[in-house]
Amino acid sequence: MPARIRTAVDQRFPAELARLRRERGMSLRDLARRVHYSKSYLHDLEVGRIRPTCDVAGHLDDTLQANGTLTAMVAETPAVTTPDDDQRIAYAIAQPTRLDAATVRLLADVLAAQRRLDDAIAAPVMLPSAVPQWRTMQDLAARARGPHAPELQAIAAEWTQFVGWLHAEARNDAEAVRVLIEAADEADAVDSGPLAAQVENFRGYLERQRGNPRGIVRHFLAAYHTPGSSALQRVGDAVQAAHGYALLGDRAAAERLLGEASDLTEAAESESPPAAAYWLTPTFSRMGLGLAYLALGDKATAADNLRAGLQGLPDDQRDAEWTTEYRQALTVAAA
């Protein structure tokens, strides 16, 4: 049976299509003649009544000379569930008191697949489908009863964290903060140190995108000192807090944290990453080290660490949206 394909569309596509058309001085009728689509079809695309396929987005992008803007807003992704899976999930939603272990495992697998899609698809394209899934999970977790409910609630807490991350990555800053605050409460409710630490890590990432060194220090230090977090998480959090201190000009504090991170490395190398931070490896934190050393003015060491960290990424992560800042930093360090 061929894989089912789902089309994911950035919610900004309709407005961007209309903006580009007007910027090119075209009416709907003009564009319809050029692309050989009906005027009504184009109107429905611009008001969001229908969704474009990848082919349609590409054709419009070429015609409007959008340099890939429209193409990047549409992606085809394989469905992560089968029809039988969908029926099982629908039954759990309708009968939450009869939740079973197989459904909980299935929902964990769905979340894991969504998180890995984030390495290949831009966050704004993922959000329109991720948010409804999250809300469904929250509702199910609130109504679930029985021995499997606690495990489902932990999955729902991780889903909240994932949606907060997507908003941070998409630079929906206010919504990211709101959702991540909610994620912190849920992580505490399910008594998960790794989840709680990862929430603070994502808050630190957002502050780094905002260019706020004190925010970087505040949230990465909170992650570093969160009870129950893993050694791999703590290494990365210490390194990124050191980056914040370096940006503030506090070299002593930065070097102290880099030393603490080095001391933790042996323990980190012997453990597997928590599911909430599956991407962590002993070499992953070298990208954060690169940022810290670059801020400390040591370009050669920064370049070595950034290069090693980027080269150590799995193939499916190397072009992920979140790697952009590290690739840009490597360009600066290597100059």
UniProtKB/TrEMBL annotation:
InterPro entries: Cro/C1-type_HTH, Lambda_DNA-bd_dom_sf. This is Helix-turn-helix protein. Pfam families: HTH_31. The lineage of its organism: Bacteria, Bacillati, Actinomycetota, Actinomycetes, Micromonosporales. Gene3D superfamilies: lambda repressor-like DNA-binding domains (1.10.260.40). One of its GO terms (molecular function) is DNA binding. Coiled coil: none annotated. Residues 17-53 form the HTH cro/C1-type domain. It comes from the Bacteria.
